[in-house]
Design a protein that fits this description.
Layout (H helix, E strand, L loop, with lengths): L15 H4 L74 H33 L13 H12 L2 H26 L21 H4 L1 H22 L6 H17 L10 H10 L2 H16 L25 E6 L3 E6 L5 E3 L3 E4 L17 H7 L4 E6 L11 H20 L4 E6 L1 H16 L4 E7 L17 H13 L3 E2 L1 H10 L2 H14 L8 H7 L4 E2 H13 L2 H4 L3 E2 L2 E2 L9 E6 L7 H8 L6 E6 L17 E5 L6 H7 L1 E4 L3 H9 L5 E3 L12 E2 L10
Parallel strand pairs: 4-5, 4-6, 6-7, 7-12, 12-13
Antiparallel strand pairs: 1-2, 1-17, 2-5, 3-16, 8-9, 10-11, 13-14, 14-15
Length: 683
């Protein structure tokens, strides 16, 4: 669920300063400034040889002079000779020599820091088992299929080569015209939203401009080459396209020191100190990842759960081995009769809905007179490796709703499911429908999928060969998947934003990542129990069993068409985790009244968009035609957040007003203050 790309996902609890070790940061003192070299003395003509004179008798050694008085200035020693490296530059000024010496010294320091960090990482990795697969992305078979088909289509290959040559000829001609003083239109331009080439030198400097356009031409050509091959399985083509994008993103000229004008300018401005800091950052991230590079996406020390994130007041009123149920304090004298319980994804922590007071959905809902409960999922360890999807259904949905209803004194409530928490809630609704259980008065889904046939790039990570490697990885880790592994997967989905931008900023520029609460949360991933995770990947992504009506839980065949509960479905236009088309297909599976809303932005910002921010927009339409395109053609656009539209709908199912509920005075005895202890457990 993380917007990692991701997200940049290891635990964000370890500070950069604390992770520095023998292979990490030490702020360097500036190198001593050299002085100008003295001119060589003029050689004298040797005198004629004379008869040797007898050696004089040695005189007794004089006593050493007394030390100078404290206020007496000691004579300055003779200045050292200029470094040999600068001997060939006699016309340099003292300042220039100082800059050159500092630069060369710092470059050497940076190289030594990097070498030391890599050596230490290699030693840490020496005792670890080798990689499970030489092809971790399982691209080999798909690449062989695509390239084999391409080889069997020589006419297409010839046209592609001619097209590439034409593009380069156009670029060379445009460059020649520019050198002649003209201003030709660029042959290739970055796509909208591509922030890699924002530095003016990428356009103003002819060298960097040619470098940029050459890269863009080649990257676009490669994508078109593999994407246009006929006669291959769509999933194979998609996997190769994804891999090619990863490859071309990695080889962007912005990711290399010598071809990044911003980084080069920073090196010259700091005398090489920026590169020293960058390599110290590199060493610290290697140490923090235990020998594996864990790129810092934010300043983790700036955030403390319960202090400046996840600060909404409340009490933990129930817990079992899978979750804590947090009831938040009211902010109004009266509240609606039916409370709201939220099931966030178990991959992340719930406080994405309570990052800061000004963007907290939990606080906003309380201000609307809603009694809010949230399931805070456990960060499972090896002892919970055997927990299943059915366990999360029973101990999660059923036990949490039982506790919330008892605490609120009601027999029905409203529910929200976010991302995979929404997938679980969907299965629970179908399970309840089969049993005649009507405890859910209404259900809302944030960026949640029921139909996985168009589930986005995550489908590329769910073929059986990939899943077998994943099982072996979890077995080696005691039956759980590490939070870092989840973070890495989501980061790869948006590599430019969640990997390479930080690579450039942290290492090439030598800057510290800025404090950002969203990225702190994004890095706070939880572990996955093997039984739960493999069932989810195989049954939902692999088999699409829920949408097909083939999923069975607890002896019950699940049918979403039997769910008559009113449903509100939110999706985000730019969501790469739960694509809008996929969410829309799921919305049409429910058998009761369904309201679909499309918001601007992506998986996180599209959901967490408080009205006060006045950002983005949303679209509404009260019918569900066959396709999302048809729905969009009829939808009305409204500026700003979708929350006001949703709250009107939610209140219509929330009953009348009753006195506000104090979490400390309900039937359930409070266990501890919000946000609770489960959310504090790091991976």
């Amino acid at each position: 669920m993380s917007e990692k790309g991701s997200q940049t996902k290891g635990s964000g609890s370890t500070s950069r300063s604390k992770s520095k070790s023998p292979a990490s940061k030490t702020k360097a003192k500036a190198a001593a400034a050299p002085v100008e070299a003295k001119a060589a003395p003029t050689p004298k003509v040797a005198p004629k040889a004379a008869a040797p004179k007898p050696k004089p008798k040695p005189k007794p050694k004089a006593a050493p002079p007394p030390p100078p008085a404290p206020d007496q200035a000691s004579p300055r020693p003779a200045p050292p000779e200029a470094p040999a490296a600068l001997a060939g530059f006699p016309d340099l000024t003292t300042d220039q020599r100082r800059l050159l010496e500092n630069l060369s010294t710092n470059l050497a320091r940076a190289a030594m820091t990097a070498q030391g960090a890599i050596a230490e990482a290699a030693l840490r990795q020496a005792d670890r088992p080798a990689a499970l697969s030489a092809d971790p992305f399982h691209i080999g078979p798909s690449l062989t299929e695509v390239m084999g088909k391409l080889a069997s289509q020589p006419d297409r290959l010839v046209r592609a080569q001619a097209d590439l040559l034409t593009r380069y000829m156009d670029l060379w001609q445009a460059t020649a015209r520019r050198m002649a003083g003209e201003t030709p239109e660029p042959v290739a331009q970055p796509l909208k939203g591509d922030k890699r080439f924002l530095d003016p030198d990428w356009s103003d400097n002819p060298v960097f401009d040619v470098m940029k356009q050459s890269y863009l031409v080649t990257a676009d050509w490669l994508q078109g080459l593999v994407g246009g091959v006929e006669g291959v399985e769509p999933i194979s083509r998609r996997r190769v396209e994804f891999f090619m994008k990863l490859l071309t993103d990695a080889f962007s000229p912005t990711n290399f020191l010598a071809s990044n004008p911003t980084a080069m300018r920073e090196i010259m401005a700091t005398g090489g100190e920026s590169l020293v800091r960058g390599m110290e950052n590199f060493a610290a991230d290697l140490a923090r990842g235990g020998g594996q590079l864990s790129i810092s996406q934010t300043d983790y020390e700036q955030f403390k759960i319960g202090e400046n994130v996840a600060t909404a007041p409340g009490k933990v009123v129930f817990q079992n081995e899978l979750l804590q149920l947090v009831q938040f304090s009211p902010s109004t004298e009266e509240v609606h009769e039916l409370p709201l319980i939220i099931f966030p994804p178990w991959i992340n922590k719930f406080y994405i809905l309570d990052l800061r007071p000004d963007n907290s959905m939990i606080r906003w809902l309380a201000d609307q007179g809603i009694t809010v409960f949230v399931a805070s999922w456990v960060n499972p360890d090896k002892a919970l490796a055997g927990k299943t999807f059915e366990d999360y259904l029973r101990q999660g949905i059923y036990e949490a709703t039982d506790a919330a209803m008892k605490q609120a004194g009601v027999d029905r409530l409203n529910a929200v499911g976010y991302c995979i928490g929404g997938t679980l809630l969907s299965a629970a609704l179908a399970h309840m429908a089969a049993k005649g259980d009507q405890r859910i008065a209404s259900a809302t889904f944030f960026a949640a999928q029921q139909d996985f046939s168009e589930a986005g790039d995550l489908l590329l990570f769910t073929d059986e060969s990939w899943l077998k490697d994943l099982e072996q990885k979890m077995d080696a880790e005691g039956g759980v998947l590490s939070g870092q592994a989840m973070a890495d997967t989501f980061n790869v989905l948006r590599s430019n934003d969640l990997i390479w931008s930080f690579f450039v900023n942290n290492y090439l520029m030598g800057k510290e990542p800025r404090p950002f609460d969203l990225l702190f949360w994004n890095s706070d991933q939880t572990r996955m129990p093997k039984a739960l995770h493999m069932f989810y990947l195989r049954q939902f992504y692999g088999q699409n069993a829920l949408a097909k009506g083939e999923l069975e839980l607890d002896g019950v065949r699940l049918d979403l068409g039997a769910v008559k509960t009113p449903v509100y479905v939110q999706s985000s236009k730019e969501d790469h985790i739960a694509p809008a088309g996929s969410v829309y297909r799921g919305a049409r599976l429910f058998g009761g009244p369904t309201t679909f809303t499309l918001s601007g932005s992506g998986h996180i910002a599209g959901v967490v968009n408080p009205p006060a921010a006045k950002k983005y927009q949303h679209w509404t339409f009260d019918q569900l035609p066959e396709s999302l395109a048809d729905w969009q053609a009829n939808a009305a656009e409204t500026p700003g957040s979708w929350w006001p539209h949703w709250i009107v709908w939610l209140k219509s199912y929330s009953g009348g007003m009753v006195p506000a509920r104090d979490p400390a005075k309900g039937p359930l005895k409070p266990i501890e203050d919000a946000p609770g202890s489960y959310v504090q457990v790091k991976s």
